Amino acid sequence: MVNEKMKKTLYDKIYDSHIIYEDKNNTSILYIDLHLLHEVTSPQAFDSLRNKSRQVRQPKKTFATMDHNVSTESKDINASGSMAKIQMEELIKNCNEFNIPLYDLNNPNQGIVHVIGPEQGMTLPGMTIVCGDSHTSTHGAFGALSFGIGTSEVEHVLATQTLKQQRFKTMKIEISGIMQKFITAKDIILSIIGKLGSSGGTGYVIEFCGSVVENMSMEERMTICNMAIEMGAKSGLIAPDEITYAYLKNRMYSPYGEYWDKSLHIWKTLKTDKDAIFDKTFVINVSNLSPQITWGTNPDQVISVNEKIPDFNLFDNLVKQDLAKSACKYMNLKPGMYLTDVKVDKVFIGSCTNARIEDLRAASNVLKNKKISKNVKAIVVPGSGLVKREAESEGLDKIFINAGFEWRLPGCSMCLGMNNDKLSNGERCASTSNRNFEGRQGRGGRTHLVSPIMAAAAALHGKFFDVRKLDNSGNN
Ligand SMILES: CC(C)[C@H](C(=O)O)[C@@H](O)C(=O)O
Ligand code: SF4
Hints:
Elements: H1 10-17, E1 19-22, E2 27-31, E3 34-38, H2 43-51, E4 62-65, H3 82-98, E5 102-103, H4 113-119, E6 128-131, E7 145-148, H5 151-160, E8 162-166, E9 169-176, H6 185-196, E10 204-209, H7 211-214, H8 218-226, E11 235-237, H9 242-248, H10 257-267, E12 280-285, E13 292-294, E14 302-304, H11 318-331, E15 346-349, H12 351-354, H13 357-367, E16 377-380, H14 385-393, H15 396-403, E17 406-407, E18 428-431, E19 446-449, H16 452-461
Parallel strand pairs: 3-4, 3-6, 4-5, 6-7, 9-10, 9-12, 10-11, 15-16, 15-18, 16-17, 18-19
Antiparallel strand pairs: 1-2, 2-8, 13-14
Helix pairs in contact: 2-5, 6-8, 13-15, 13-16
The chain binds 3-isopropylmalic acid (IPM) and iron/sulfur cluster.
Catalytic activity: (2R,3S)-3-isopropylmalate = (2S)-2-isopropylmalate
Subunit structure: Heterodimer of LeuC and LeuD.
Protein name: 3-isopropylmalate dehydratase large subunit
């Protein structure tokens, strides 16, 4: 148990303030402030609740959206096939029965759960937030303790608004240096995952800090926390500050009037104490960072755009060598190759990692007055209805469409291919999403994770391209 006089990390502060009960083995029951639901991981939880004749304890602290298998071409519930239809219909039925607000296909603000939570002001500093979805870590960008849970835990939270938890270890990742032009939050988090490995964060909640993080927008911070899970971490956290408050002011569910002032007062205490001790610390300077691209089937198999695919015989352990070998085979690549010599078939700009307004602004800026390669099929899928409308009001849709992209409806889409947006066998994709596992975007599909501007540059050239070398004169 943490001694009250001890200096605390931000994680400990949030954790401690939500304990309802803690036993001598440090197992706690935590109060949950916000529970987010989507169509894929909630149906069994509701069924089970119904079977036990239980109610949803706090329907007003629960929000649902349809995102994973919605069509991005039509608002028709039948458009993504029968399984998708069943899951969406179940969600509608369950939300009606239990009085839970639902962002359904016809809601103008429907979108990816991790995009709409923050933009509607549901996600607030100091909260505990859960969802049956691993990328719930995204909400940590606001200084909220947020993590993914399994379906039986979804049921438990629905019924009790609490969750059994163990205290996790804490890791501090300090990001310093200067972010050069064309280097994005995506490049930073990919390079951190590359250095620490896909299990480097296992057992930890990671607090990201340092001058680079302090200067980041909320969109950039969300990209960082979103991918903390890809290094195995329980969650990512960033202390709230003026940038956080400015983002949250006047959002739909943000506190207002005197509640805003009271909240600010509390939010300002949400910082790791000066001498608090982390279980592990990692420091990275990003001044010399180049744009990153994954070459393998795991987010930690990543290189700079100007590097060759590594000779895995030089890797220090056999497991890593084997993984790299099979990844190269699946990806149809060889050590020593440059990805800038490799053609792409599809480009996907979307997902809860990189489908927010700033991501679309950045990508469209690269595409302005240019045409994508004839050999590439490219889609842009805004993270939410709000992002889509905002982008359209700025004319970004026109830039994408004129360049040759398809401008789609919001959803998870080709991030995981649960709708019709998939890669075919052997197709290669420059994707702004967060996972590149075998078959992630469709059976036999080959995914390379990149930033939105690197994805746009790949679309223009028909192969991977160093976005820093783009000609701004209007030629590709
Ligand atoms: C479908 C869902 C359970 C899954 C997750 O938890 O992450 C999905 O969102 C993903 O990104 O793979
Ligand atoms: S966009 Fe991708 S990573 Fe995010 S919740 Fe949807 S499927 Fe999961």
